[in-house]
UniProtKB/TrEMBL annotation:
Protein name: TrkA-N domain protein
Source organism (scientific name): Sulfurospirillum deleyianum (strain ATCC 51133 / DSM 6946 / 5175)
Alphabetized Gene3D superfamilies for the sequence: NAD(P)-binding Rossmann-like Domain, Regulator of K+ conductance, C-terminal domain
GO-annotated biological processes: potassium ion transport
Taxonomic lineage: Bacteria, Pseudomonadati, Campylobacterota, Epsilonproteobacteria, Campylobacterales
A Pfam family of this chain: TrkA_C
Length: 232
């Protein structure tokens, strides 16, 4: 019996291809979906199956599993209007569905929020300046070197701060850089701001609370040690 598809990636774009490769590498059940038949050849050449459907039809979305066994969808079309429409349709079919929506313009962010997106991917928040600050840190470059040459088992992981963690109530400046652990703190997902990701390079001395999520990069064993000793 085949594993039910729990993740749908709408829009056959560069972003969906990269996400699909990550999911494929971790054996997650997913499906790539688009409405453009001309993309089939490209998908097959890259080794992916692409489902061509009319995503504007609610019955089609239900047949894909929205409202039943699908737990995550990504709306990754290059057209913001398509992402907003699909988000609205999917949310009406399943109030509990986790919808990750891509936006290409700042004007679409508010529309996606109203439509019911759980998380909004805004490339404009990741400006070239922030990326430059990030990659010029020596510890990041050492991780990139290790990843490229395959010397270490490098992972990116989200760590939720628990109520009894010693991090609860501290400021970002109190924990950055992370001492005694070979880890890089990339940023914080603030539970109160819900959809906002705060890059560590932005310089905000944010107060950490239970429920906030730290995004760290490091070796799997080091991440596990940090989770056990600090995150709890």
């Amino acid at each position: 019996m085949s594993t039910p598809t729990t993740i749908l990636l709408f829009g056959f774009t560069h972003s969906s291809i990269e996400i699909a490769r990550q999911l494929q590498g971790k054996n997650h059940a997913f499906m790539l979906v688009d409405n453009d038949f001309s993309l089939l050849e490209k998908a097959h050449a890259l080794g992916f199956e692409l489902m061509i459907v009319d995503y504007t039809d609610d019955e089609v979305l239900q047949k894909l599993g929205i409202g039943t066994h699908v737990s995550f969808i990504f709306t990754l079309f290059e057209d913001d209007a398509k992402n907003v429409f699909l988000t609205l349709s999917a949310r009406s079919l399943d109030p509990k569905l986790h919808i990750v929506a891509m936006t290409h313009t700042k004007d679409a962010i508010h529309k996606l929020e109203i439509a019911g997106a759980s998380t909004i991917l805004d490339p404009y928040q990741i400006s070239g300046k922030k990326i430059y600050k990030l990659i010029t840190q020596p510890e990041v470059m050492s991780i990139i070197d290790a990843t490229v040459f395959g010397y270490h088992n490098i992972n990116i992981e989200q760590l939720t701060i628990h109520e009894h963690s010693p991090l609860n109530g501290l400021m970002i400046n109190d924990i950055y850089p992370i001492e005694h652990y070979n880890l890089l703190l990339v940023g914080i997902h603030d539970k109160e701001l819900q959809k906002q990701f705060i890059f560590i390079t932005e310089g905000h001395n944010h107060k950490l609370d239970a429920g906030d999520i730290l995004v760290v990069i490091g070796e799997k064993e080091e991440i596990e040690r940090y989770k056990k000793e600090v995150i709890r």
